[in-house]
Amino acid sequence: MNTATVKVSIAILKIKQQFLLQLRDNIPNIKYPGYWGLFGGHIEGEENPADAMHRELLEEIGYAPPIISKFGCYESPDVIRHVFYSSLNVDINKLVLLEGWDMGLWTPEDIIRGDRYSEKAQQIRPIGPVHQRILLDFLHSDFSMLKNYD
Length: 150
Description:
This protein is an alpha+beta fold. Helices cover 20% and strands 34% of the residues. The protein is built from three helices and nine strands, in the order E-E-E-E-H-E-E-E-H-E-E-H. It has helices at residues 49-61, 108-113, 129-139; strands spanning 6-15, 18-23, 36-37, 39-42, 69-75, 79-87, 102-106, 115-118, 123-126. The strands form two sheets. Strands 1, 2, 3, 4, 5, 6 and 7 form a seven-stranded mixed beta sheet that branches. Strand 5 (69-75) and strand 6 (79-87) form a beta hairpin. It is globular and about 40 Å long. The termini are far apart. The relative contact order is 0.25.
């Protein structure tokens, strides 16, 4: 049995007063299949968390934010999540979803409620609990109010 802790980098991407989330593929061998979550993924080898974040965003939506900032680190026994935030400086229609089932912009009300409709899935899907907690923490932080962030 492998008990190694997985390290990941995930991104809070904000445009105006909305947040870009990914609807994860609905396949059973991934964490939170069919749930909405933040973009990101595994940190590879000796890669630092910020570099992993840039690589993951390019792999998943073809987007490289000019500036990313560290929001925090969320640790559990099996996963360490390095969380970054950045402005989304392009229209969502300019992004190409390269990984995942769907993507969409979430309002703070959507995040609080914990679910959102997906056009591609043709149903309401929940947000992953840890991703909801991270976004709620962000909404209640001073970071979400930064003037130069949006």
